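User: Hey, quick favor. My workstation is busy. Could you predict this chain's structure for me?
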Amino acid sequence: PNRGGPGDLFMGVCRGFGGGKIPGGYIPLRHPSDSAVDLAGWRIISDGGRSYRFPNLTLYPKGAVNIYTGPGTDTVTELHWNSDSALWASGDQLTLFDSQGNEHTQFTVP
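Assistant: No problem, here it is.
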């Protein structure tokens, strides 16, 4: 798998059960490209300084993974930030960085 290029991944926040609140808020990460991306060491950082580091995970072509706010068991399609408090609010910005620190995408929470 490659590391992907800028614009290859799309991120958003689903309000689910209250956005960044516990339980149920999550960040969907979608990969529309035809090549796999190795997400090991990638990070999502909020403008409040909260950071999530991806485990060893490959996002395959047309693949997706949801990053849930609260605790849980990670799978290939569901990852967990394991927070016991809300992580973002309306107007917060989330930024996705690769393992080298290059910015790939940003999302402002509605």
